[in-house]
Each structure stands twice: as structure tokens, then as C-alpha cells.
Amino acid sequence: xxxxxxxxxxxxxxxxxxxxxxxxxxxxxxxxxxxxxxxxxxxxxxxxxxxxxxxxxxxxxxxxxxxxxxxxxxxxxxxxxxxxxxxxxxxxxxxxxxxxxxxxxxxxxxxxxxxxxxxxxxxxxxxxxxxxxxxxxxxxxxxxxxxxxxxxxxxxxxxxxxxxxxxxxxxxxxxxxxxxxxxxxxxxxxxxxxxxxxxxxxxxxxxxxxxxxxxxxxxxxxxxxxxxxxxxxxxxxxxxxxxxxxxxxxxxxxxxxxxxxxxxxxxxxxxxxxxxxxxxxxxxxxxxxxxxxxxxxxxxxxxxxxxxxxxxxxxxxxxxxxxxxxxxxxxxxxxxxxxxxxxxxxxxxxxxxxxxxxxxxxxxxxxxxxxxxxxxxxxxxxxxxxxxxxxxxxxxxxxxxxxxxxxxxxxxxxxxxxxxxxxxxxxxxxxxxxxxxxxxxxxxxxxxxxx
Length: 451
Ligand SMILES: C[S@@+](CC[C@H](N)C(=O)[O-])C[C@H]1O[C@@H](n2cnc3c(N)ncnc32)[C@H](O)[C@@H]1O
Prior knowledge:
The chain is α/β, with parallel strands linked by helices and 451 residues long. The chain has helices at residues 2-12, 22-30, 40-43, 49-64, 66-76, 83-98, 103-115, 122-137, 143-146, 155-165, 167-179, 192-201, 242-254, 273-279, 292-304, 347-350, 355-372, 393-402, and strands at 184-188, 206-208, 214-216, 233-235, 263-267, 284-289, 311-315, 329-333, 379-384, 405-407, 428-430, 443-450. Keywords: Methyltransferase, RNA-binding, S-adenosyl-L-methionine, Signal, Transferase.
């Protein structure tokens, strides 16, 4: 009998229709609080690109808008429900208030998806229905919540951005982090133009940024993008591609030797975006990475992109490790609080307390820098994907106080599209942005010359 039922079902359901729908998957993810980022395993349950895109959009929006959504739920639900019921409310409000889903469809589809979970009871469905309908009726009066993106940042993150940079920067960062749609920037191993043509041929919507990064709006699974297997690209934000470019300009200013590829150290190297970028220019790169698991993943990336000849990785503590030959330059992309990466890492927005972690990372970076000074390099780039002054500008004060180097000012012509981000000392302070093609993460970069 069961076999017969399955056979009938198989005949009724066309082969390309997925039995799991995007809202069910979104409910599953939203009801498990640890899974804040869209997980490829969940997405792989969905069969079509449009289902995967819808699901990604639902999860991303619900997570990015969580402060605003919570404020709306608190207004219409007398007490906070648990897990799946709460996920139902979040999913409904995401669609009603932040995506342009017609409210009746948003409510109906959310309830239908909820009903497929056997642990959901009839009264719970009625509760979700009532709250979503009330929230829809009250939508016009929610201007204060809907216009306040800062609600989506934890007090700790909002407080530290505001105390370093003021209210206007805080509002901009909150706006960018609340709206980011899940696109990614890629760095190409070979010609950007050729890769862009390949993407166009396969109808992958993308933009080429000022310094050659390619932004893909709806990547879905990265592994499914053309050129992944053959190693034509790796994921790296447009800002994160700048430190290596700035090091290259610094080296070309001081080195007369154009015959031999420069030998450089990529300090704190995994997952390897910058090391591979420099390797793709034919350079001789040695990466130092403390965490073995991360170094292993980096090696897999290097192999995929066929850059083994140019990029070597050593698992070591960069505050202790030494090299047999002096590099012409090094790039220290410091371990940091990563608060500039909230566009791709939603967890950053909600961090409750990072003060202790930040203080420890600052000390680690100082001891790494002290060791780097013994390597005999001529040029250095220090970078961090943090928005914190203490991890960027104030570290530069400490570096200058330690001596042996001076700042080599970054010039406007080196960084087209980023010239506005050069500060008075000639360092680059990039804030998260979504107005330039593909947008960018927050970053801080300073170049030094050894005296
Ligand atoms: C910001 S990430 C580097 C990103 C990398 N530069 C890239 O472009 O892909 C910082 C890295 O530093 C590593 N790290 C932390 N402390 C270290 C140490 N003492 N020595 C070497 N690596 C360290 C971390 O494990 C992490 O992988």
C-alpha cells in the first residue's frame, strides 16, 4: 500500500519540483539559534536556484533585521514563544515588513510551512496567525522601529563604533549590515576580463569593481559557480584585496630588481586570500599560520587554484618563527575582532562582549610585529578587518613608537574608488559600504618603510 502511495506521488510530482520548500528550510535554520549564517547543507535540500535564493534571502533578512523584528514581536506577542513558534513569527514579519511579499501570502505560506513540522500544535498555529495579522495591521505605525537599523546591532558593537567614529558612521554601518543581501566578492587567479566574460556566458549576474574584484549578487553555493573546480577564483572582499596591492606598490618603489619574483611573507595567512593573490602575480610567498586546521584549508585552496609553486604554508606561531632568507616585504593581516565583516558574518552584529577578546588580540599582534621586525624586510603592510581604532590607528601609534619604520603614505592613484578613505597620515580606513559596485567590508591598512 505504502509503495503504491509513493508511486502515485511520484507520478503526480514533476521531477523538477522540490518536496522541501524554502520556508520550511528557513524555519529549520531560524529555530536553531546557533545557525545564524546560511548553511550550504541546508540549502542543498532545495533543488532549484530560485528556491535556494529565496531561502537565503529569508534567512539573511531575518538574521540581519533581528533587532527590529524582535521589537515588533515584543509589541504584538504578550510573551516570547520558544524556538519553532518564534521562528514562525520571525519568518512572517521578515516577509511582511522587510521583503515585498504581499501580507496574505506571507502569512499563509508561513503557516503552511509551520504545519509540516509535527511538533507544532493547532493552538500554536493560531497564535502565529493572530500575531502576524496584528503585526500586519499595525505596520503603518512602526516607522520608528523600521527606520532604526541600529536596533540590529548589539549594544556592545553599536557602543564601540559610536565611541570611535560617532553617530553618523554608526548609522551607516548599521544600514549596510542590515541590508546586505548575501552577495560575495571574488578575486580572480588570471584575467579578470576573461573570467567576467565566462560568468556572463553562463548568465551569472556580476559587477567588476574598481580594483578588479568581481561581485556576484546571488552566488547560491560558491562551489557551483563556473571556474570553482578549476581554481579560477577565491572568495575575497574588495577591501581585503587591497593590502596585497598596496604591498606590491611599496615593493615596486624600492626594488630595482624586476627579474626575480619578490620573496614575501604573508603573516597570519589562512584562509589564504592575500597569499594566493600575491602568488597569482608569480611571487614567491611563504604564509605563516598558527592554526593547523586553518592552514590545511588554506593548502586545499592553494591546490585548487594551482598555486602550489608560488605559495608555501608553514604552521607556526608568527611571534616566534624565523626564516632562512630575508623577505623584501611582509604583510601582517592581524588576527582581529573582524567587526568590519558584518556584511558576510551576521554574528558580528550581535556580539555581546568583545572587549576582552580585542585586548588579547591587540597584545598578540604586538608580539607578532616585534618578531616580524627581525626578518630584515624593507617594506611592510599592516592590515585588519576591524572597525576598532584600538586595533588599527592606535596599533600604528604603537608600531611607530617602537621604531625602525616610518609610514609610507598610500596615494590616491594607488586605490581608485577608495581614495576618500585615505586618512591624514596616509593610511586607509575603509568603512563598510554598499554604494560602490558590490560594496565593501570595513578595513584598515597602513604601509611602512624600514628606515
Ligand atoms: C584575519 S585572519 C587572516 C586572513 C588572511 N590573511 C587572508 O587573507 O585570508 C588572521 C589569521 O591569523 C591566525 N593567527 C592568529 N594568531 C597567530 C599567530 N600567533 N601566528 C600565526 N597566525 C596566527 C589566525 O588563525 C587567522 O587564521
